[in-house]
Specification:
By secondary structure, the protein is mainly beta. The protein has two helices and 14 strands; from the N terminus they run αβαβββββββββββββ.
Length: 203
Amino acid sequence: MKYLILINLMFLFISCTENINKIGCGEITNIGFDSQDSLWLPIKKDSLLYSNENGAVLFNLYDYQSITINKSKCNNPIHFSADYGTLNKQLFYSISINKSDEKSAINYSFSKMSDNLIPIIAQAMGIIDIETNQPINTESVDFVQTTKLGTHELNGKTYNDVFVIEDLKESEVPEIDISRFYVNPSGILRIEFYDGEIWDRVD
């Protein structure tokens, strides 16, 4: 009986190995970021400085990490995130990149923080395919529009590969009062609010 079980297990292992090889998997490997992805990875900084008409707005680093996500496919995707928060307007934003064997995309989200500085209400705002350097707009998120501007001037400075991400429906997440913001591979360049306030990145 033991020999019969052993033979069955060996047959099952050989069959699984053959099936994996037939679909082109071989060994399951972890996906890594390539040179194109690296252009969009935020550089780790303890703080980021923005300016507005009243002075300076300081964003402090909350989290910065890259993790491998285990999935039952040929490859394990990788996820990167950089999170920053400021006491000004109690605003928190997250930049994250997800790469799988299908595509590599960067997305942005904003949150309001509670009085004890915990992100609570959040709004996803904008996705960019960083392999093709093109915006991703979906019908399921019809309240946000991402547009590629290319070379663009902001606050007297000229930037390349600029995208503008606009909130088309103020009432969708009213606590997040951002009307639009501008990004490029170096990060978020400008944030514009519904009340007319503008924050420009200070490089």
